[in-house]
């Protein structure tokens, strides 16, 4: 009976998300048509480039892995009543930690643990500022993102640079790289790590005492405190768990993405995943299982963009516009839910 009720509870948000995808795709088609491009040809190549071949599916899943992990960072914060946008900087540190540690411990588990631990540690300052000094998490995490960007950039070009290639850091040693799931593609065990992480977070958030405390603190902190729950402790745990998943995203990016297995100049290959994760989380309604499907959707949009550009001759700028329209349309229901939750929390 409980399972039936749980499934019914998911039916409405799923239906809303599917409808939003269709509306976004329709608006995107209108924009393409008025801009002089064939929406049928563009969407055909979008689907063909991402979902109709082994290579396309592999690329879709590979691009979804870090997005799933950074989306979980935002989702855990949202469920706890926080607007944590610090995943971006944590990805940088997770990637750099994996590169540094694997130079000495040439083992993939060591690299993933390094990303996970440095992610948790990097999340602590924002958590402490929020809980003990009342500093809003949006302000602190934005600042920490910039600190992370410039600090990791300095480490990349001045300390852990590759003497044979000045455009990248040292590479992950071959024995520490995540095995590829499909040969000659970018799909590695990083995707499996992302899926397992989402499932573990789902179990923690919905089937453990800690998860109940986090969600209750997010819905009504005063009622939670009255019931014996410490909202401050919940906030700290929210930051720490979110930091772990974002750190794993960074580690997975450099350990499982050929051919460089390194951070490239300007952090180009690790940049943006934390910010994109916010949209993925909203599309997935801030739910770990919904985020898996939302991450794959975002991965398909990214993987299919190349085929749209090459075969439908749609310029990259227009592709980004279409992606943005679809993402905004799909994210609106989740964004409204988040604002409603934060508003109720503020009233409490």
Beta content comes to under 5%
Mean pLDDT: 90
Distance between the termini: 32 Å
Task: Tell me the number of strands.
Answer: 2
User: How do the strands of the widest beta sheet line up side by side?
Assistant: 1-2
Largest sheet: 2 strands, antiparallel
Considering DSSP H and I runs of 4 or more, what fraction of the residues is helical? over 70%
Q: Counting H and I runs of at least 4 residues, what is the number of helices?
A: 13
Q: Please tell me how large the radius of gyration is.
A: 20 Å
Shape: globular
Low-pLDDT regions? none
What is the succession of H and E elements? HHHHHHEEHHHHHHH
Strand-pairing-aware structural class = mainly alpha
Account of the protein in words:
It is globular, with a radius of gyration of 20 Å. The model has no long low-confidence stretch (mean pLDDT 90). It has a two-stranded antiparallel sheet. The protein is built from 13 helices and 2 strands, in the order ααααααββααααααα. It is mostly helical and 348 residues long. Helix 1 crosses helix 2, helix 4 packs across helix 10 and helix 5 runs antiparallel to helix 10.
